[in-house]
Predict the 3D structure of the following.
Amino acid sequence: MTIDHAPPLQRSDIPVRIVRAADLAATPWRNGGGVTRRIVTGGPADGPDWTLSIADIDSSCRFSQFPGMDRTAVVVGNDPVELTVNDTTHTLALLDRVTFAGEDIVSATPIRRPTRLLNLMMQRATCDGTLTLRHVRGTVDAVTDDTVALVVLAGHLIIDQQQLRRWDTVVLTDLTPQIRGAATVAAVRLHSEENP
């Protein structure tokens, strides 16, 4: 496990795909301990290679275990959370990030009020990737590396005359136009383990 304080996606011929936070459906965790809102997945529908989602941490809860997967979580709610990984507890504030294995025993407790985590889960055998923070100021090219999605965490982005606010996501394609705005975003980068 590491803590950081503070197969490739097939790009489509659709210029831009925006996923609004307000449109995300809440679904119960596999162990019934909480709810998550799935943003986007890659790979087979019945067993995705990777999944990006937002989890609500309303009270003390234990995470579902996902053997064979690697996970990264970033605090995106306003309030901190205590995250315990294999009996070691860490206090994480807004934008703090933690990585751990799907086999690990993990539980979370909000410290003051309910909060949220942005989660990236990846099948260890088929893909590898990162969930990192970036700051956008002005105009930038949308497709410059292996980045497949950007989640707005603060500020705003404008893409194809559409404005994205907090927790909105843009899924990038080869035809995505330039992005402009002033925002802190979480960037998802992925590549295949077979072709790193």
Confidence is low (pLDDT under 50) at residues 2-13.
